[in-house]
Protein: Metallohydrolase
Organism: Paenibacillus oryzisoli
Amino acid sequence: MGIRFTVLSSGSTGNATVVDNGEVKLLVDVGFSAKKMELLMKERELAASSIDGILVTHEHSDHIKGLGAFARKYDVPIYANEKTWVELDRQIGVIAEGNKRVMDTGGLEEFGSLKVESFGISHDAAEPVGYVFYEGEQKLSVVTDLGYMSEKVKEKISDSDALVLETNHDVDMLRVGHYPWSIKRRILGDKGHLSNEAAGEALCDIMTNKTKSVYMAHLSRDHNLMDLARLTVNNIVQERAPESKQLRLMDTYYDRSTKWDVLDSE
């Protein structure tokens, strides 16, 4: 079958993505209660009991809110690096020792024919990561919660068939918003979140003719709009890479899942 995926939900209030190759089904983060996760999966005709593993990007609550409860209920192994596990142990309750799996940053795990590689990103967490999924020639990258797109991150996610990429905020909306300056400074900083503009600029550096779809993820409900994110990213791409006619900019939602996206097997 190759890789298919759905962004179950994404935003400041919670994040979760499912990646499936017909052999294994993996979750990236569990940012909602176990009950909410079950409902989101049901939208995509997916049983929560079918999940084979959970990959954790970092320990912030919008990525692990239901992690402990979900893993215990369905006896699912959790993969995270050691520094993240230190934080998880403080937050998610008791996890069976056999389900506590250490995946070093930069490590590669094989789940049958599906290969998963983690890579470090810049965010104010213990040791945050993004993930790249490989199935044959197919490549899917999932990266949110990064203050800036480093050259190393660009190298890891370039030439992807599809990306789940952070477009967290519009800089002007954030600057005039109601948040205290200390929080605004955090979001705008190198360990904060990626703006629409920064995502668009980075996308021009990493996409190739192979890249077909980009899911704009982790939008702030206070300082962004999906239409604005799409317009900003599209304008930058059209200005810098006008030949990229095949690229689709896809919405994600804070309250529902995206349709399954099946990567091109050619």
Observations:
- DSSP finds nine helices and 14 strands in the chain.
- Residues 226-240 form the longest helix (15 residues).
